[in-house]
Amino acid sequence: MTDLLLSQIDINSNSLTETDEYIVNLGPQHPATHGVLRLVVKLDGEVVKETMPVLGYLHRSIEKICENRTYPQCITYTDRVDYASAMSANLAYAMAAEKLLNIEIPPRAQWLRMIFVELQRIASHLLWLGAFAGDLGAFTPFLYGLRERERVLDLFEMTCGQRLTYNYIRIGGVMIDVLPEFVEKCRLFLDYFFKKVDEYEELLTYNPIFLERTKGVGFITPEEAINWGLAGPSLRGSGVSCDIRKQQPYLFYDQIDFKEEISYGGDCWSRYKVRMNEMRQCVSIIRQCLDHMGPGAVEAKLPPVLKGPNGQEAYSRIESSRGEMGVYLVGNGTPKPWKCKFRCASFNNLSVIDKLTRGWKVADIMAVLGSLDIIIPEVDR
Amino acid sequence: MNCEDLKNKLEMDFKEQVHSLNITPQKEVILTARDENYLDICQSLFSKPEYDFKHLSCLTAVDYIKENKITVVCHLWSYSQKCQLTVKLETNREQPRVPTVEKIWKSANWFEREVFDLYGVIFEGHSDLRRIMMPDDYKKFPLRKDFADDGFIVKPN
Predict the structure, then answer these.
(1) A135 in contact with B at a CB cutoff of 8 Å?
(2) How far is A310 from chain B (nearest CA, A)?
(3) Nearest residue of B to residue A345, measured between CA atoms
(4) For A45-68, how does the pLDDT look when each residue is reduced to its tens digit (9 = 90+)?
(5) What does the alpha-carbon distance between residue A62 and residue A72 come to, in Å, rounded to a whole number?
């Protein structure tokens, strides 16, 4: 690989001061790559000429495994597709399976799904905030972010007993109803958390050092961003209205009053700002869900063995914490899916890294990578 | 635009260029293109303002081992018309070769690399067709149904 890259370098021998391009390997064990991602960076001095991501260090062939498991068994593997936002992955798979098998979900289960997915979005954005600020050299937000994330995880643990891989949203509903005290505890957390977002913003948003590192860095136009397949907050940071909760409403998002957060800068700072505002919207959505949620069943009556109809297929998309997450299922009349494909936002968001970093300094790679909110298990699957 | 409207519109525009066009019980419109018209259809879907499919949501392949074919599946989404469309292209399983849509949607670059890596489908005209997940010197195509490795045998259903 390196030999091949070295052969591509041309030495500009005509100029008075000769400069030489060289290659730096970032990762696969670099703290700022948030996992095992390797970036082969071609540099001229400190200026990035090309960034080539090398994937596959965390490839566990989840899609192949799912083809050899029954429909309900696959839920466990979806947790591992995106472990920082496992509820969203659960939901994406469950919704695709329900679409394929034509299953109706009781309303209470739908409200619970919305509450947990939005709580998960808060937790995921908090982890991103900490890691992003950490990449830029600010350590305090990491502690702040994880402090509040812990309280979200407590709510999850209270309900399903898990703190990271929940396996909570199942085909036909959710695993178990929430405890009676959950609603009150959730409301307490929301009141507490809403004020904390201002605290993070005070630390970072108009901080001169932070602005210097993020404003204008990693710019992408809306047309290019759509063409490259960016999704979620990263695309909304370029001023494109793309929220699937608004575009193609699922669950009860059409009954909820919330604003789609858009920022028009197209740079790292805009992507940051979208996520910060989204956390406030999450609080508002969860509050409305808690108001609307009535008593009732949390799981639909399912046949003992779920068989995908032969030759039929379903593609369902949700807005996960990182953007568009789609699941494509093909049935063949047996209890196992013939094909199971996860379309993950991080995969496409990472593919644009070369475009975003070209011409910037090597330190800006960290800012760009952080602002895209990549999670490696989702890229490699 | 709902799925009936989309289907009628597609029927008017591409009637001669498709193998089949139908609405599934899951309310999805599926278009199976003829080999020679695949690129033209994709280009019109992308650029015509009444379709405006600017977003390639997903590109993958399905191995139908009994019919001896691999189907390449593109899921498109139109931000302005708010509708979803599935475009399919069937190819031979022994010599799978399909044209690339990378020139239309740049996001297809990595999607097609992944399909090449896991199914062995050659995308003609692709700018950078290398393995993406598996090691570069890997010889097999893991998501094919007849894939078998030492100690890991998969029987197709």
Answers:
(1) no
(2) 12
(3) B57
(4) 888 888 888 888 888 889 888 888
(5) 14
Does A26 fall in a domain? Answer: no
**What's the pLDDT score for residue A191?**
92
Which pLDDT score, from 0 to 100, does residue B33 have?
A: 87
Domain count within chain A: 1
Residues B44, B37: Cα–Cα separation, whole Å: 11
For A360-372, the pLDDT digits (tens) are: 888 888 888 888 8
What pLDDT score was predicted for residue A247? 85
Q: Say if A38 falls within a structural domain.
A: no
pLDDT of residue B149: 66
For B142, the closest of A61, A309, A330 (CB atoms) is A61
Q: What is the pLDDT of residue A27?
A: 73
Q: Tell me, what's the pLDDT at A328?
A: 92
> What is the structure's pLDDT at A4?
53
Of B54, B58, B154, the CB nearest to A343: B58
Q: Which amino acid is at B144?
A: R
Say yes or no for a CB contact (<8 Å) between B109 and A240. Answer: no
Contact B31, B14 (CB under 8 A): yes
Does the CB of A241 have a partner CB in chain B at under 8 Å?
A: yes
Instruction: Tell me the pLDDT tens digit for each residue of A175-184.
Output: 888 888 999 9
Q: Does B79 touch chain A (CB under 8 A)?
A: yes
Residue at A272 is within a domain? yes
| B25 vs A: CB within 8 A | yes
- Domain span at residue A231 reads 59-380
CATH number at residue A235: 1.10.645.10
> Which range among A98-112, B11-25, B39-53 shows the weakest confidence by mean pLDDT?
B11-25
> What is the amino acid identity at position A71?
Y
Distance between CA B61 and CA B67 in Å, rounded? 14
**Interface contact flag, A343 B132, Cβ < 8 Å:** no
**CB–CB of B119/B135 below 8 Å?**
no
Asked if residue A2 is part of any domain, the answer here is: no
Phi (first) and psi of residue A262, to 5 degrees = -130, 140
Q: How far apart are CA B74 and CA A380, in angstroms?
A: 20
